[in-house]
């Protein structure tokens, strides 16, 4: 009769076999899922870099706009204090575009488009505002694309979509409104370009018009410069004829178009208060932005 093996010995062998089984079986899907994990990690890291760069571009663009609002003359080179003050912000924007240029090439330009759109729109607002103050014309889409491409570095050009360009132009109208009202309060007149001589007014009339696709008739007498309000009205006319294609872009255009109309209306009302009742107002009075406040400052 054979000897019975102790229970403890049998249990020990079974445990050893169980421990060895996971080492012996290797799943063929593990390398595939490890690649998936690696791709997801890269995607999230890339997305975070783009979001951070977009926020920094937005912040620097806002600071550029704040400095530009200190300008008081139209159609002239930027004053030295503006060039000096904004140099660091332009450099920051350039560094941020260079840091993400390689991340937004090819299909990634559209994959991460919603993450960079905020920075692109704010950049367009600052760029178009400065361009208008210097030249009294609207920066073109090709010029704006070329500007971003020149700031993108060796990684490739960061894409500026037509949607971001248009939405940035809508936002720029608000800055022109603030510039107009502040200048009227400071100088007592609506900002306008330099007056032209009678001999050059007819020759330059086409070049002096705001750079939009189709120009509406502008009733300005010979030798009289074009002012901000006439440009705002011309821009409003062109933007109101624009029909967005649908989706989120259409919703954004509708909202910004309402704000644009309000901005032009505020400049018109401010000019009305300045011209019609200007003699009744004390020096340094800021033109009212709402119709119900036109009768204020009587106590002065």
Short account of what is shown:
By secondary structure, this protein is mainly α.
Molecular structure report:
The chain is mainly α. It has a single domain, classed as Methane Monooxygenase Hydroxylase, Chain G, domain 1 (Up-down Bundle). The protein is 64% helix and 0% strand.
Quickly count the domains: 1
What is the CATH class designation? Answer: Mainly Alpha
Radius of gyration: 31 Å
In total, the number of strands is 0
Structural class: mainly alpha
User: Helicity range of the residues?
Assistant: 55-70%
Amount of beta strand: under 5%
- Compressed to H and E, one letter per element, the order equals HHHHHHHHHHH
CATH topology: the name is Methane Monooxygenase Hydroxylase, Chain G, domain 1
CATH architectural name: Up-down Bundle
Tally of alpha and pi helices: 11
Mean pLDDT: 82
Could you tell me how far the N terminus lies from the C terminus, measured between alpha carbons in angstroms?
A: 124 Å
Main sheet makeup: none
GO molecular function: sequence-specific DNA binding
Main location: cytoplasm
Family: Belongs to the translin family.
Keywords: Cytoplasm, Nucleus
List the keywords.
300 residues; mainly alpha; Methane Monooxygenase Hydroxylase, Chain G, domain 1; elongated
SSE order and pairing:
Layout: H1 7-24, H2 30-68, H3 80-100, H4 108-111, H5 113-135, H6 141-151, H7 162-187, H8 198-201, H9 205-208, H10 228-240, H11 247-276
Helix pairs in contact: 2-3, 2-5, 5-7, 7-10, 7-11, 10-11
